[in-house]
Predict the structure.
Amino acid sequence: MSTHRRINVAKIGDVTVVKFLDKKILDEANIQELGLELFSLIEHDNRKSILLNFTDVEFLSSAALGKLITLDRKVKANKGRLKMSNIRPEIFEVFQITKLNKVFDIRTDESEAVAAF
């Protein structure tokens, strides 16, 4: 398993749970690195069920949202499923404004999201 600088990866059954190590996902270089780490879960580790847990994330830039959209496409192209959980209300508002709450499967907490796979 590869080492990650931006994410913490755990397994619950068949579900890969990803927690973000950065509180603020804003910096372009960090977002690029984050994207590579997330994409490698699919492209190299062949993970099918991925849960993104946003517990520690306080801010998310629009560039980070773009990476999440790309990740969603890659997961679906690989016949996998992507879910999200523990999104703060102020970040969820951005998902609602951009209508991404209709694109992504967003659950209240990690246990609910894991059960939904």
